[in-house]
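User: Okay, second chain of the day. Same drill as before: sequence in, structure tokens out.
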Amino acid sequence: MTGTYENGIYREGDVRLSDLSGRRRLPIGRDGFATAVQESVVIDKSLLIADVLNSSAAVTLFCRPRRFGKSLNMTMLKSFFEIPPASDPNAEDAAYLFEGLSIWDADDGRYREHQGAYPVIYISFNPVKKQCWEDAWGALNQLIVWEYIRHGYLSDSAELNEQERAYFERVAGWEAADGDIESSLINLTRLLFKHHGRRPVVLIDEYDAPVMAARDNGYYDEMVSFLKGWLTAALKDGGQALAFACLTGVQRISKESIFSDLNNLVVNTSLNAKYDERYGFTEDEVRALANYLGQSAHFPEMRQWYDGYRFGSVDVYNPWSVLNYFDNDCECAPYWGNTSSNAPIAAMVRGGDARLMRKVYELLKAGGSVEAALDLSVVFGDLDARPEALWSLLYLAGYLTTDDTEQPNSKDVVRRLRIPNLEIASLYRSEIIDRFAQIAGGRDCLIDLHRALIDGDACLLAEELEDVLLNSASFYDLTSENSYHMLLVGLLFGVPGYGNPASNREAGRGRFDIRLAPERAGLPAVTLELKFEHGADASRLQVLATEALAQIEARAYDADTARGGAGAPSHAGGPTGALRHRLLRKISGCGRGAQAFIGHDVSESSRCHSAVVFGRLFLCRCIPSKVPYAQFRPLTDGTERPARCDERTSSCVLVSAPVQGGSAFFAGAAEGRTVLSRECGDAGTARSREHVRRK
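Assistant: Same drill. Structure tokens below.
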């Protein structure tokens, strides 16, 4: 450790960690502040208390992504401010939880007088995620009733009159009418104020959870109507009985008019500099935690995976992921992404057209970004009427961040949005793989396609791509080279041993179309050059393929793979990594189907090509390195009779001269069936066989 540990507090510079137990346990899944502090290590965020007390806002809404400390901070406020309710058996003076934290010493201890000095109403709406209004109404009732029960001492309060006590007992006794529930929040603030002679603090956690569930399940109007009346009555109309209120959520749901009548509401988002250090972990906090846990050696790796967010003027880490990283012996994984369905990304990727997917792929480039204005009052439902709202939704949910945080309340400022770190990039990648696995006919088919590409299995590659184009992808959507380009890029996500496909990157003396760079030594780099032309016949396809392969050579697209150039891994490593796969594809519209030409170049010593026409299939493999690209010869079937092109079935087989060693596989197809194959053994002997694969 580089800091000091004394009386349960670890100090390193300005950072303080509370570990009263001294056991270095991490608060995984512990949203309750008191429990977390008593049993585990907690990074000190207590100056949020001073910020709230010093704020002029009567009501503050904190909007942050999930798992960024909202609930922990809300329970911290509750523990600090609350007068322990006499009727709550778990209530206790919580002063000892804060001794040694920054708030205890701040401004010569002047904030201590606020500790344990307020009645507190605390409700978390996280459990109100139901599939119908009746169940949601029942859950709302239950939360309200239990908060009344927690303040059960009011039923005997001498400060309340008979009618007030009767009202309280109806609600606490599960006998409240609908009208009693609708006015329950403002009435509880008034009852607490009358009993204590001090205005209460209201804390509402996850306020947007029931709204989002309502939108998804068809009872949106009922939920919004209830929350608007319930909250407005207490937070505005009952202001004379309120000290202050804090609410948290992922989204700012002002469009639904929940807060339309609240002119005393201040909304704080990730764009705001105020409170920017109170959510998420700062660099100094993570470094101190790593030092305290004896894991400082892993700090650089963790920064790549979980850093990268920008809140106001501060760079922050994802706290949930950092804690889980340390708790899992410093193993990198998408811990944050595994806590939800990642619906915003899924909605974008599953429904995205070629234009949108190009932006997604751009985001996944090193240093990639998109530019968009942020309207932080959007919700999922806006996506149907306002597709541009997607970027705001992704930002609010934590799937994008921005360094452009000036003018935080402006809807007109165009901001450069980026993926924060490797963890979030992996979530995009996973959703892309899921989408294109469906397009490919399932994960098994996608795996077969990937294996065929890397192994140079032209037959299998042709079959799998033909399946995609004829059975899954719409011909009407595939009308340009760009649309085919996007399709192929999507299909190439998740190739084992490879990173994300790089698209339209500069390399050599030009710009390649697509590249797959290996993430470990011993795998070839894959470069793809695409060509598009309407109505091309087989001979024209061959010409285009030849031109594309020549273009790869002439412009030296893969000359940089051995030294870590564009799209190449840093460990590609010299001549031993010279195995190169080059794939080219020419696609054009042709009747109901499509046409494609694929060229494949593998290794320094043997140039192998395969050509595919979807609707028609051409394959040619194993051209010795000394044979020119365009030199194709007909395959014979053992009787010295060349295999012929059948114009009626549009099938044909083209191959090179005999192979000098090595193994080769040749095939042709007619109307979706592989009808001829030929293998050449290591000694150059050949045998023919029939193989039929029906689709």
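The mean pLDDT is 77.

User: Thanks, on to the next one.
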